[in-house]
Amino acid sequence: MAMRAAILRHIRVPVLQTLAPASTASHWQRWIRPMSSHGDDHLQKEEVIERVLSVVKSFPKVDPSQVTPDVHFQKDLGLDSLDNVEIVMALEEEFKLEIPDKEADKIDSCDLAIEYIYNHPMAG
Amino acid sequence: MASTPSKSQILSLFRSLLRTARDFSDYNIREYTKRRTIDGFRHNRHVSDPSSIAAAYSDAESQLQIARRQVIVYSLYVPKLKSVMEIKHA
């Protein structure tokens, strides 16, 4: 799936360019932006922390008052491994990422989630 | 039937089902599949007998195949109107 999405994203640029030459510049900018390696559009750490915390807080079984940036999902919030998977999936949706199973299994605390997302180049 | 699936295999299957659920274009089907997956895994949470675990696992696997096929079928008949639940209020 991730592979397919990545390929489609690349293909779309030339197609748009040939079909709509008049608006080429704006399309180019729109599609190139998310792929740029410049630091200016990368997420700020504070923003990542805030959004991760709000996703975790909005999880039905979590008591929002207990959520802090270094809270452990299963040890501190009383969640189980299924909830853990659900939270990581919710984070994927929030940041428009696809986290591979191997990485997703390791994310078991807010701390690790923030670290992973902050260091992810495609997080948006 | 294969041996008892490990915890990580089960979580991986759970994740695959949730990912597939996300691909449905129709809001109602998408939410139902997600809800059904979570409820199903929760329902079998305390199953400890190895053969029952293996049976539940292969059942979920076949459900995953069905869901994957249905994603494709539903994508051919996308509703023209969005569900009212998908409309974001400003």
UniProtKB/TrEMBL annotation, chain A:
Tell me which positions the record assigns to the signal sequence.
none
Keywords from the named record: Electron transport, Fatty acid biosynthesis, Fatty acid metabolism, Lipid biosynthesis, Lipid metabolism, Mitochondrion, Phosphopantetheine, Phosphoprotein, Respiratory chain, Transit peptide, Transport
The family database entries (PROSITE patterns) matched by this protein are listed as: CARRIER
What GO cellular component is one of the record's annotations?
mitochondrion
Extract the GO molecular function terms from the UniProt entry. acyl binding; acyl carrier activity
Record localization: Mitochondrion
Checking InterPro entries in the record gives: ACP, ACP-like_sf, PP-bd_ACP
Which pathway features in its UniProt record? Lipid metabolism; fatty acid biosynthesis
Q: Where is the Carrier domain?
A: 46-121
> So what does this one do?
Carrier of the growing fatty acid chain in fatty acid biosynthesis. May be involved in the synthesis of short and medium chain fatty acids. Accessory and non-catalytic subunit of the mitochondrial membrane respiratory chain NADH dehydrogenase (Complex I), which functions in the transfer of electrons from NADH to the respiratory chain.
Q: How does it assemble?
A: Complex I is composed of at least 49 different subunits.
What PANTHER family does the database record attribute to this sequence?
Answer: ACYL CARRIER PROTEIN, ACYL CARRIER PROTEIN, MITOCHONDRIAL
Under NCBIfam families, the record lists:
acyl_carrier (TIGR00517), PRK00982.1-2 (NF002148)
- Which family, according to UniProt? Belongs to the acyl carrier protein (ACP) family.
| HAMAP family (UniProt xref) | Acyl_carrier
What name goes with this protein? Acyl carrier protein
From TrEMBL, chain B:
The UniProt record lists the Complex 1 LYR protein domain at 9-65
Q: Could you name the domain of life of the organism this protein comes from? A: Eukaryota
InterPro entries in the cross-refs: Complex1_LYR_dom, Complex1_LYR_LYRM4
Q: Name one GO biological process term.
A: iron-sulfur cluster assembly
Q: Pfam families per the record?
A: Complex1_LYR
State the name under which the record lists this protein. Complex 1 LYR protein domain-containing protein
Q: Which organism is it from?
A: Vitis rotundifolia
